[in-house]
């Protein structure tokens, strides 16, 4: 709770009060409690299965409620599932209340629009085509309410600039919600047909398979992340001078990959490549990694084995794909003077050429215990100077363009950086290949 600013908590409280006002009419008049209970149970089960890993997977049930029930009754369907959902970040209670409140408002608004355009009559007559227009109007309203509320809470709770907070929220969610709305509308029409609610539940069968697949996929992704996290932590413990280096190289590799127009799956693989590029240091004696001052030729040869050690460690991890080649070849140079195999130009895998630039850039812009960081412009100038001989010019240009758009924040990589000392010669093999 302490991490949430007071203004954000006040905002959540205000949204929650607004949601309660939407539910207030349920205290008067007849309420179809059995229908609310059935839809709420379906939504709750879906939320428990998918959690926050597949947001929106259960929206068809909420939209079916918006097409079947009065606005207050439809809004109530969302409450149990949101309050009982799995929350991985703290404060869990506040996050559950927020989720319930925003869903209540979104469903209530969508149901109001659907009702105003005569949607319930078309659904009651089991006339699917005539119900499409009211549904098509209700979906953007549902999407807009969620986008507005989510963007606002980002601004207040996480201090995200307003322009960035709302950018793309509506557009990204509209297409998936349109598909969910079709499933919800099919449920509503079948519910009101002579076949009754039992037929409507058949629509949920493929959805349940989808929920299960989402859950399996995200469990597998979590296992992958845990594997990578364990390897990175082991490297950080062993080589304290470069703590956090892998994460930043992964970030820079991802920026380069995106600038080159690679698809999301490949971008993620290159992020893994950057994170794990130095995992072979686990096979190098700690005394060499922590040695201050120049290395002897023999010590340098030992350190230069770390790409091969790393490849041996990760070659059996199938989900890493081309990241394994990047681990092995990220110290190769375009002119053939790199290691371990002295590959030239296009012989070097593209993933390794990406990581080589990201590695060198972070090494130059990070403060180490034995020297200060270079300014970003100076590091980029050095990369451009070495483009063609040491680095792939395409990768260097992609990084320059990405940094021009998004910027970069150099970081201290050791836990404690001692007082500045006179500059010493760089330690070969300890930093990026730009040395």
From TrEMBL:
Pfam families: HD_5. PROSITE patterns: HD, HD_GYP, PROKAR_LIPOPROTEIN. The lineage of its organism: Bacteria, Bacillati, Actinomycetota, Actinomycetes, Kitasatosporales. Coiled coil: none annotated. Keywords: Membrane, Transmembrane, Transmembrane helix. Residues 242-364 form the HD domain. Residues 220-415 form the HD-GYP domain. This is Uncharacterized protein. The keyword Membrane applies. It comes from the Bacteria. InterPro entries: Cyclic_di-GMP/3'3'-cGAMP_PDE (IPR052020), HD/PDEase_dom (IPR003607), HD_domain (IPR006674), HD_GYP_dom (IPR037522), HDIG_dom (IPR006675). Residues 414-435 are annotated as: Disordered. It comes from Streptomyces glaucescens. The chain crosses the membrane at residues 61-85, 97-118, 130-157, 169-191, 197-215.
């Amino acid at each position: 709770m302490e991490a949430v600013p007071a203004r954000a908590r006040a905002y959540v409280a205000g949204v929650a009060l607004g949601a309660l006002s939407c539910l207030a009419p349920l205290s008067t008049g007849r309420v179809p409690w059995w229908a609310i209970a059935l839809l709420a149970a379906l939504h709750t089960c879906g939320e428990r299965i998918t959690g926050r890993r597949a947001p929106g997977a259960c929206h068809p049930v909420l939209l079916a409620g918006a097409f079947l029930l009065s606005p207050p009754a439809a809004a109530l369907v969302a409450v149990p599932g949101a309050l009982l959902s799995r929350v991985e970040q703290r404060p869990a209670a506040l996050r559950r209340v927020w989720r319930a409140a925003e869903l209540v408002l979104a469903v209530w608004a969508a149901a109001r629009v659907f009702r105003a355009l005569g949607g319930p009559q078309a659904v009651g007559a089991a006339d699917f085509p005539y119900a499409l227009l009211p549904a098509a109007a209700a979906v953007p309203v549902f999407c807009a309410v969620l986008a507005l509320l989510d963007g606002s809470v980002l601004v207040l709770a996480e201090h995200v600039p307003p322009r960035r907070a709302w950018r793309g929220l509506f557009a990204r969610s509209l297409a998936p919600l349109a598909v969910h709305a079709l499933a919800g509308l099919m449920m509503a029409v079948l519910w009101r047909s002579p076949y009754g609610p039992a037929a409507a539940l058949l629509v949920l069968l493929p959805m349940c398979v989808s929920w299960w697949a989402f859950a399996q996929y995200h469990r597998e992704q979590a296992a992958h992340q845990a594997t990578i996290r364990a390897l990175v932590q082991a490297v950080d413990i062993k080589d304290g001078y470069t703590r956090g280096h892998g994460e930043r190289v992964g970030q820079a590799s991802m920026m380069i990959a995106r600038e080159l127009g690679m698809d999301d799956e490949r971008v993620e693989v290159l992020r893994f490549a950057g994170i794990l590029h130095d995992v072979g240091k686990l096979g190098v004696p700690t005394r060499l990694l922590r040695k201050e001052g120049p290395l002897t030729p023999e010590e340098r040869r030992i350190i230069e084995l770390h790409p091969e050690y790393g490849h041996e460690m990760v070659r059996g991890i199938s989900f890493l794909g081309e990241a394994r080649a990047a681990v092995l070849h990220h110290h190769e140079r375009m002119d053939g003077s790199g290691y371990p195999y002295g590959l030239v130009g296009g012989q070097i895998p593209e993933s390794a050429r990406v990581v080589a630039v990201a590695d060198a850039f972070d090494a130059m812009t990070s403060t180490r215990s034995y020297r200060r960081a270079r300014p970003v412009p100076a590091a980029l100038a050095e990369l451009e100077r070495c483009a063609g001989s040491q680095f792939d010019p395409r990768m260097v240009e992609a990084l320059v363009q990405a940094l021009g758009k998004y910027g970069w924040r150099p970081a201290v990589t050791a836990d404690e950086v001692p007082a500045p000392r006179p500059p010493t010669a760089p330690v070969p093999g300890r930093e990026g290949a730009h040395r």
